[in-house]
Amino acid sequence: MIAYLEGLLAETWGTSCIVVTRGGVGYELDLPAHTMASLPRRGESVALYTSLVVREDAQQLFGFATFEERQVFEVLLTISKVGARTALAILSLYRPDDLRRIVLEEDVDALTRVSGIGKKTAQHVFLELKYKL
């Protein structure tokens, strides 16, 4: 598993970037919006925690600014009806502390603000997070 990458930022677009390691290997990563916004300029050094998601038809590498974000992403992936894209969308809108607050305050409606999550899915995700966070 690839858990951490350090290198130079080669390119950015949309919610993705390419990080080139010292060995010359470039990795494409999908990032939460706030991590994307905090990236340095092209050619500068960057370090990201990562999570590799393997499916039948693809392998995707996701990058996070902190280890805690990576861990919450992994927890979100254990919830049925939540795939990697939905987990990334949740972390693009809410940081780990925000998710804990949502669970603590029982604010199920906050999860419906995430693109692709309706009321029923939000309730399911909330119940799972209540026991997993």
Protein topology:
Blueprint: E1 4-13, E2 16-20, E3 26-30, H1 33-37, E4 45-54, E5 59-64, H2 67-77, H3 84-93, H4 96-104, H5 108-111, H6 119-132
Antiparallel strand pairs: 1-2, 1-4, 2-3, 4-5
Helix pairs in contact: 2-3
Describe it.
The structure is a single chain. Helices cover 40% and strands 27% of the residues. It is of the alpha+beta class and 133 residues long. Strands 3-2-1-4-5 form a 5-stranded antiparallel β-sheet, with helices on one face. β1 and β2 form a beta hairpin. α2 packs across α3. The longest helix has 14 residues. The protein is elongated and about 45 Å long. The model has no long low-confidence stretch (mean pLDDT 92).
Helix content: 25-40%
Calculate the terminal CA-CA distance, rounded to whole Å.
23 Å
The poorly predicted ranges are: none
Mean pLDDT: 92
Shape by Cα distribution: elongated
How many beta-strand segments? 5
Strand content: 25-35%
Largest pleated sheet: 5 strands, antiparallel
What structural category arises from helix and sheet content?
A: alpha+beta
